Amino acid sequence: MTIDVRLRLVEDKDLPIFFEQQRDPDAVRMAAFTHKDPADRNRFNAHWTRIRGDPRVTIRTILAEAVWSVTSRRSSTTCSENRR
Question: The dihedral of CA 46, 55, 16, 18: what is its sign?
Fold first, then answer.
């Protein structure tokens, strides 16, 4: 398996995904730092507006594509899955 990892600037379309990840109970349980209320959308929006507007802060979206390759004597199959 190989993984192609790329970084890009955070785009508006990323924010709903980040918000859902922040609300995930398993993610909250494992995170070192969390908000008091991970479901508070107004606080989430205020946080991202502040950090995206601060030129001292570097933030990126991580794009990863995992590719599994299976080869046998008779056939070859490659599967790709995009993940965010």
Answer: negative
